[in-house]
Amino acid sequence: GVVLPFLYWKSARRGLLVLLVAILCCVPWTVRNFETFHTLDPLRTVMGLSLWLGNNPQSDGINTNNQHPISSSSERSLYTAQGEITYNNQKEREALEYMRDNPGRTAQLMGRRFVAIWSGGTPNPIHDFLHQKAPWFKSLWFRWVLGFNLFAALTAAAGIVILFRRHNPFAIPVSAFPIVFPIAYYVTLAPPRYRHPIDPVLLLLSAVTMQAIWQNISKYTVSTLHK
Questions:
Q1: N or C: which terminal CB in the chain sees fewer CB atoms within 10 Å?
Q2: Is the pLDDT of residue 157 over 70?
Q3: pLDDT for the residue numbered 188
Q4: Separation of CA 151 from chain center
C-alpha cells in the first residue's frame, strides 16, 4: 500500500481507483478491530510495540532481545493486564520519549537497521564476513548469503540510476520499492524476512545492471575487433 502513489503517479484516476479498492478490501478488518478494541485501528495495532522494541536502552536495533511479550513473561503480564491497545500506546510513548532524549543513539540504531536490511541481517557485514567462526559449511553458507545480499543491494542501486539515466517510464514505480518500502523498518526493527516482499524487484533491478554491463562489454569487444 505504501508504494501505491508511486505505481500510479502518472494516472491519478487509476491510482485513486486502486486506492479505493485497497481501502474496501481492508474495511472488514477495520470493522473487526473497532468492534474488538472499541477504537479506530484500520489494520494493525503493533506499531507502538515495534517502535519500542527497536528504540529502548536494551535494543540492539535489529532483534527484539527477548523483550517481546511472546518471549518476556514480564512484558506478557503487562500486555495482559493493560490490554492490547493501552499496552501499544504506552510503548509508543516510551519509544518516542527515548528517541527524543537520545537522538545520537537513535541515529546509530537506524544506521544499523539500514545496513542489516541490505546485508541480509547483520549490521556488521565486513567484520562478520572476515571473522565468521562457525563450522566450515555454516561459515561458507553465511558468507554466500551475505555476499549475495550485498551484491543484490549494490546492483539494485545501480539499476535505479541506470533507469533514471535512460528516462525509463518504469524508473519511479520500480525504484519506489527499495527506496520507500523499507523506511518503516529503518525506524522500528529489521529482521531479514522483512525485505522479502521487495526481493523480486531488487533482482529485476540487478538484471538491469547486469544487462547494461553486458552491453558495454559487447560494445567494447566489437569496437576492439574492428580496430
A1: C
A2: yes
A3: 94
A4: 17
The pLDDT assigned to 62 comes to: 85
Do residues 178 and 198 make contact, with C-beta atoms less than 8 angstroms apart? yes
Contacts of residues 212-217 at CB distance under 8 Å and 24 or more positions apart, as own/partner, are 212/158, 212/162
In one-letter notation, the amino acid at residue 129 is F
pLDDT, one tens digit per residue, over 179-208 is 999 999 999 998 888 999 999 999 999 999
- Nine-digit cell at 114? 539500514
Instruction: Report residue 105 as a C-alpha cell.
Output: 543513539
For residues 102 and 9, give the distance between their C-alpha atoms in angstroms, rounded to a whole number: 37
155-180: average pLDDT: 94
CA atoms within a 13 Å half-sphere pointing along the CA-CB vector of 147: 9
Radius of gyration of the CA atoms of the chain, in A:
22
